[in-house]
Write a structure and sequence with these properties.
There is one protein chain. It is built from ten helices and six strands. The relative contact order is 0.18. It has one domain. It is 39% helix and 12% strand.
């Protein structure tokens, strides 16, 4: 196996943006022990940071700059709120956010979730893939359903990979934490609060690809009809359903 060229992921980003006709860039997420040289640090939620990065910003999320306590916890930048703060969070989830009918149901959702990567790193560097200087851990695509369909088919081309998705929970958990911890590709519509409080378009969802799967997706492009390969349908197949 030949050596990959330095920062090959940047080329992957350009290739997939052009192929899929993406609005903005795919997004690289990297957990780093050291703060990046080129990054903005400002108070922002994870859900909003993804939109900012798609549009060209490089952001370093830390415990201090994460604007959402839930995002801080889900990304592993800080522990789950406990005591009075934990009680306040539970009351908000049930009586304020109103996404779950009780704290018992909220706990049931948590019991089905993977644990956040607490203590993994102090910096979560989020960059446009075409500008990322650090190798990504997870690559996110903000896409429409057709673009998502193509990505999933390209991912399945070599081994019929059928991802074990998780689609209930916090948007940042589904988009970053779950694929990071499990190595599973994931698809998420985000959570309703994230969509209501951030300018995601009605048709947009997120496909999250662990970086180790990205090369296979790119290598399938010229072979798979979800990429650039020509679709051939014999006449007898065309007649079916007519």
């Amino acid at each position: 196996m030949g050596k990959e060229q330095p920062m090959i992921w940047q080329e992957y980003g350009r290739t997939l943006k052009e192929l899929l006709g993406l609005e903005g860039s795919p997004i690289a997420v990297t957990y780093s022990l050291d703060p990046p040289a080129k990054a903005e640090q400002y108070k922002v939620s994870v859900c909003k940071a993804l939109l900012d990065v798609r549009d060209g910003k490089i952001i370093n999320l830390t415990k201090e700059t994460s604007a959402c306590p839930g995002g801080t916890w889900h990304l592993g930048l800080g522990p789950r709120p406990e005591g009075a703060a934990g009680e306040k969070l539970k009351r908000f989830l049930v009586n304020g956010e109103k996404l779950f009918c009780s704290i018992a149901v909220f706990n049931r959702m948590l019991a089905q979730s993977v644990q956040p990567p607490l203590g993994l790193a102090d910096n979560v560097v989020i960059s446009p893939l075409k500008l990322a200087e650090l190798e990504p851990d997870v690559v996110l695509f903000i896409v429409n359903p057709e673009q998502a369909c193509r990505l999933l088919q390209l991912a399945a081309y070599w081994d019929a990979y059928n991802p074990r998705t998780q689609m209930v929970g916090a948007g940042c958990y589904m988009a970053i934490t779950y694929p990071l911890v499990t190595g599973e590709l994931n698809v998420t519509f985000l959570d309703w609060t994230a969509r209501r409080t951030n300018p995601y378009k009605a048709h947009e969802l997120i496909v999250s690809v662990p970086y180790h799967r990205l090369k296979c997706i790119v290598e399938a492009i010229d072979r798979c009809s979800a990429g650039t390969a020509t679709l051939h349908i014999p006449p007898e197949f065309r007649a079916i359903g007519e």
